[in-house]
Amino acid sequence: MPESHCKQCGASLHTAPSPGAPYSPRRTLLQAQEKAKWYEGEWWPWTKELVFYVEPEVNPIAFYGRAALYVFFFILGLQFISMDYDTVVGGSSAISRSFMHSVNLVFHEAGHVIFIPLGRFMTILGGTLGQWLIPFIVLCAFLLKTRDTFAAGIGLWWLGQSFMDAAPYINDASTEQLILLGGVTGRDVPGYHDWSNILRDLGWLQYDHTIAGIVNGVGVILMLIAFGWGAYVLYLQHKNLSKGY
Question: What is the pLDDT of residues 75-91, one digit of tens each?
Fold first, then answer.
């Protein structure tokens, strides 16, 4: 007598086929086995190895250097999270007065140039995309190329901060009070404000504050994830501290 259930997963070998499909016990068995593998969590070991990889032996000097760096970025990140992205004083926001804004600005301006072949709209949007794309590339490079999960966490921190850095610019789209590169505002030079142009073209100018809030919120979430990721990687590295130093 042929068996009616799979010994491995308990799935019925006589499940009714989908309408119009010929019944195949073998196909049904293979589908059940693949489904069982997913539920057994075969995806998790691969993800864990990628995201939480640490060296078998960790140099204590390198570890404590990373721990000090983590404390620095943690305190700096809390400062960014506490800043008001929607308050403009003297033509600037608190976030735009930080040193990280100058870092992001380099890649923002480069983004405009990189996206020129894709037309006017993408050239304008490319500034913000550029300042988001670079930290994402850094994150992927450390995670996939060098397998430095702690440095990848710093890359995620930068990506979150870059999102928060863009929020004041988006929030200013309808009022155009921020002083932009060149010492002018969007009011002074019509068509100069990236996000005023972007949202006006999309017909979303009245939603600038809402979009800015969402972008800032995404940045905060990414930074909080980076905090947790970095802390857990340091915990794993501490467990693997080399005894030879």
Answer: 999 999 999 999 998 89
